[in-house]
């Protein structure tokens, strides 16, 4: 039976800022958790599910609509505060090479130097396995001077037959060298597990 009014549940969430350059990033005030993945992996939908909102984070039927780093503040029922960071999606071929390079520099600069960044959620479509972009991102996070927690999240797990989900997550885990959390923005699978992992990475006492 689901816990009623859990302390980890988000009760307040709001957009803080959007930055297209490292110089315009908002001040680093609270623990930040970044979300990264290919443009069609369901990143915005998952973020909305995590904060219990339908449209806080912009979603689009056209992949690659996020052209900046977007920051959202979220407050849990027990008072814990987080900043969720929506990174531009990668791997979308219709953007120009110059634009993708600019985004890449912005993402790399943010991931490498942001002192309040505690974890990076690397989102992977549960049906497709780990692509080269995800491998490179995991290597980048692991090589960071100040260690980060990498949380590998298999999105759209509801699209995988229930009988095949355990095997799919195990295969992804072997490829990533990390525990993989299955999630679905459609039916809220994995939301509590993800929040507990996020709180642990941000050094917030689990509830």
Tags for this entry?
7 strands; seven-stranded mixed β-sheet; 24% strand; alpha/beta; 207 residues; 5 helices
Descriptive notes:
This protein is α/β, with parallel strands linked by helices and 207 residues long. The chain is built from 5 helices and 7 strands. The chain has a 7-stranded mixed beta sheet with strand order 1-3-4-2-5-6-7, sandwiched between helices. It is globular, with a radius of gyration of 16 Å. The two termini are 17 Å apart.
Uncertain residue ranges: 60-64
Number of strands: 7
Strand content: 15-25%
User: Number of helical runs?
Assistant: 5
Alpha carbon gyration radius: 16 Å
How would a textbook summarize the main sheet?
7 strands, mixed
Share of helix among residues? Answer: 25-40%
N-to-C order of helices and strands: EEHEEHEHEHEH
Structural classification = alpha/beta
Strand order of the largest sheet: 1-3-4-2-5-6-7
Give the termini separation: 17 Å
User: Given the C-alpha coordinates, what overall shape results?
Assistant: globular
Instruction: Give the overall pLDDT as a whole number.
Output: 85
């Amino acid at each position: 039976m689901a816990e009623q009014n859990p302390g980890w549940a988000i009760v307040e969430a709001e957009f803080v800022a959007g930055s297209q350059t490292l110089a315009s990033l908002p001040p680093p005030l609270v623990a930040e958790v970044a979300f990264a993945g290919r443009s069609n992996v369901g990143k915005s939908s998952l973020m909305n599910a995590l904060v219990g909102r339908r449209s806080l984070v912009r979603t689009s039927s056209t992949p690659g609509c996020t052209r900046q780093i977007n920051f959202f503040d979220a407050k849990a029922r027990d008072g814990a505060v987080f900043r969720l960071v929506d990174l531009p999606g990668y791997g979308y071929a219709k953007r120009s090479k110059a634009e993708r390079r600019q985004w890449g520099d912005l993402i790399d600069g943010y991931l490498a130097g942001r002192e309040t960044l505690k974890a990076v959620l690397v989102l992977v479509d549960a049906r497709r396995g780990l692509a080269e972009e995800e491998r490179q991102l995991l290597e980048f996070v692991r090589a960071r001077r100040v260690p980060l927690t990498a949380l590998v999240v298999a999105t759209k797990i509801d699209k995988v037959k229930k009988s095949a989900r355990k095997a799919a997550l195990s295969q992804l885990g072997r490829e990533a060298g990390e525990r993989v959390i299955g999630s679905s923005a459609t039916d809220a699978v994995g939301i509590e597990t993800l929040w507990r992992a996020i709180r642990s990475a941000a050094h917030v006492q689990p509830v």
